[in-house]
Automatic annotation (TrEMBL), chains A, B:
Its EC number is 2.5.1.16. InterPro entries: PABS, PABS_CS, SAM-dependent_MTases_sf, Spermi_synthase, Spermidine_synt_N, Spermidine_synt_N_sf. This is spermidine synthase. It catalyses: S-adenosyl 3-(methylsulfanyl)propylamine + putrescine = S-methyl-5'-thioadenosine + spermidine + H(+). Residues 168-412 form the PABS domain. The lineage of its organism: Eukaryota, Viridiplantae, Chlorophyta, Chloropicophyceae, Chloropicales. It is an enzyme of class 2 (transferase). It comes from Chloropicon primus.
């Protein structure tokens, strides 16, 4: 897959590098090798590289020596000297992406800074890219203008999207729940945006996380990492039960992911789900088929209503487990973090039943977690009988604020949540990507700062 | 601390709510109570609230009922009906911040969306805020203009900062190491920005994370969460040693945080640190005094040079532990992820010595971790002697990409890294905010997707 050192014609176009346009005079392929990281550029190649560039004033160099090797850095610096600090170098970088490095006068004898990343792998593709980019400079500029206009039209009606000067659309997760910080994702396409009776529902496809579901501006799940949350909020309670679960209730969880995980337990007889917003399952079935597969199981029965009202009508002692897969305690899910709700949950659970509820991140919301912990102790502990258990566990998930999320587990019985009693079948276990009996135990071990707060 | 229901004069000014200016006709304090969350607004207050607003066309209402209670939501909706969908409501929100909710025609009978968060706690302060904001509308607009200009002047020379239309400055952590996503932090003030011989060095103060150190556009540490990384990269190796550490080497770690943690081990006799970039400790001492305190210990000796070159000159079998506190494998730290470097580390360690190196996040860089794991096995495993150990652990940290970071631990001996052998003194333990012997063990338990990759 080696490509010889050589030259290709420079395209009659602008190419966007980092934040500005460059019109390259010519493009030089110094060396291209499909497995470049492991190999060294022969010295003759390096010398011809220097020789060519002594006379070049503005050029783009495709340079496949691994960016991260010391020798390559020294070489690039040397080449910089020879080229009087003008032009560009594109080096192969760690992820086999091409990285253009700008070298300009201001950085003489200093280090370089990286800018935009090109998303193709092999040097041959430079040619394709150049062809795609070719055309008059004006055309190119008007194409970019068009891109920005199209993006801006989509963006103007969705507060959490912005379009930058490269025509890229980005989603920013701003919320009063985590002021002064925001995780941002580059948007490929907005797939769905409507206001339901209860909340703003947005689905977009992203470059790195697949499809993303956003409710009231807050990321609920992405194709790439949803499983960690769904597996943990489900298997932590179901595997902690003394005897296998038969009857389970989900409150919230309209994306279907928790249902999917529950169905992996073969002992389950009925699964009820009570979701407030009918639009969420509709959207999930269309844009997140791998998650929404949970709805297809014949043991599943859906109720579209308020979880609070639903629980009032349920017979006491009905469920082995209740999973509260809620959004944050602002907006529609607010009541699911309060005492009247937990009183109803307590009533609806069997004596040995377990409730597991979404319980925020220790890094951001220790105050909420502390209050929830206190509340659950109040509801589930019975000092007279010396019974009741409450415990907090967590998992990591990159697209949730601070990169993690926790779960509050409670029961009227004395249950040691830390050690799983139930095991998934071999077939089911093989499908899991996050949960294991070992992770189950480890997820209850909190960092010191959190442990101190939740022990008191 | 209760404030009676009443009215205050509307200021002669614009107030910025969310994305637009509002000139309120009057401000109504419906109820203000310092511990509002636990209490209910008396119904008379609610009724007078409705009564007042039946005649109001454009108004700001300070409404202290907790935003997240169902009852309050119903009330707010009811009040919306009465007010024909015009005006604003400010509700107390979860974090005792005030949240303005815009209600407009477009959202008739729908839910509301949240916008800007006000950063004061009690309703009394609304008055102060109004006073601060008072003045002619023109003055207010020119003040905002000035703010934007000042911010833009700072921002133009730092690629990773942007200023939005509210005059807020935000830092975005863009990198080819995590394309298509970026963590962003709201900037209070840029404290330092210079290019050292090796990299771009930026320090800013933030609203939520204290001071932030950024090298080549990538966050290295923040006042708020640095301890989790520093404690784990230090105590994981030092507590895994069979006998207490006496001689330790740090490579990188110019912020001093790892030094601080090492000094908590009372058995330590000498600590050497080899940092490439002298500017980093200088900046750390000035802007991160709590971290840089490590440099003050008399057992610490600094070398400002390339870690690679330093290790070449070191006697074989010198160190009990080597801690490689590097930045990512692009830029100056690239060589610290390659075999020649690990060969030198192997040589410099005692037979029972341990090296612990920064090893990225399983969610983003499983490929890098796999290669590093293979590399460490190659260097540290001796099949003939059936000796050598390599293991991967991780911790959570909100301001690192994906919210976590890992560590690769290696030794020529057979060491069970998972169970700590050394204990910190009681005094030292009391100072720790993340590490504990229990966290030590749990940090090696990987999610299934990562375990599968690192077992093979």
């Amino acid at each position: 897959k080696s490509v010889a050192v050589g030259e290709v014609e420079a395209p009659e176009s602008h190419i966007v590098f980092g934040r500005r346009y460059v019109r390259p005079r010519r493009i030089v392929l110094l060396e291209a090798n499909a497995r470049g990281e492991k190999e060294r550029t022969p010295s003759w190649a390096f010398h011809s590289f220097l020789a060519i560039h002594q006379q070049t004033t503005e050029s783009v160099v495709v340079h496949s020596i691994p960016f991260y090797s010391i020798s390559s850095r020294e070489r690039v610096n040397a080449s910089w000297e020879e080229r009087k600090g003008r032009g560009w170098i594109i080096a192969r970088s760690f992820h086999r992406r091409l990285q253009p490095l700008r070298l300009d006068r201001a950085r003489a004898s200093r280090y370089w800074s990286s800018s935009k990343v090109f998303e193709f792998e092999w040097c041959e593709r430079i040619r394709i890219c150049c062809r795609a980019m070719s055309g008059r400079g004006d055309e190119e500029a008007s194409r970019l203008d068009q891109l920005k206009k199209t993006a801006a039209a989509t963006v103007s009606e969705i507060g959490s999207l912005t379009v930058n000067d490269k025509g890229e659309v980005w989603f920013a997760e701003l919320s009063e729940m985590w002021p002064g910080q925001a995780f941002t994702i580059k948007v490929k396409e907005v797939l769905f945006h409507e206001k339901s009776k209860y909340q703003d529902v947005l689905v977009f496809s992203s470059y790195e996380y697949g499809n993303v579901l956003v409710l009231d501006g807050v990321i609920q799940c992405t194709d790439r990492d949803e499983y960690s949350y769904q597996e943990m909020i489900t298997h932590l309670p179901l595997c902690s039960l003394e005897s296998p679960a038969k009857k389970v209730l989900v409150i919230g969880g309209g994306d279907g992911g928790v249902l999917r995980e529950i169905t992996r337990h073969e002992t389950i007889e009925t699964i009820e789900i009570c979701e407030l917003d009918e639009m969420v399952p509709e959207v999930a079935k269309k844009y997140f088929p791998k998650m929404a597969v949970g709805f297809d199981d014949e043991r599943v029965k859906c109720h579209f209503m308020d979880g609070f009202k639903f629980l009032k009508e349920v017979d006491a002692g009905t469920y082995d487990a209740i999973i509260v897969d809620s959004s944050d305690p602002v907006g529609p899910a607010a009541s699911l973090f309060q005492k009247p709700f937990f009183d109803l949950v307590h009533r609806a659970l069997k004596d040995t039943g377990i409730v597991c509820t979404q319980a925020e991140s220790v890094w951001l919301h220790l105050d909420i977690i502390q209050e929830l912990h206190k509340l659950c102790l109040e509801v589930f502990r019975d000092p007279a009988k010396n019974s009741g258990s409450v415990n907090y566990a967590y998992c990591t998930i990159p697209t949730y604020p601070s990169g993690q999320i926790g779960f509050m587990l409670s029961s009227k019985s004395n249950i040691d949540f830390r050690s799983p009693k139930q095991k998934l079948s071999e077939n089911s276990s093989a499908l899991l990507k996050y949960y294991s009996p070992e992770i189950h135990g480890a997820s209850f071990v909190l960092p010191q700062f959190a442990k101190k707060c939740l022990d008191c």
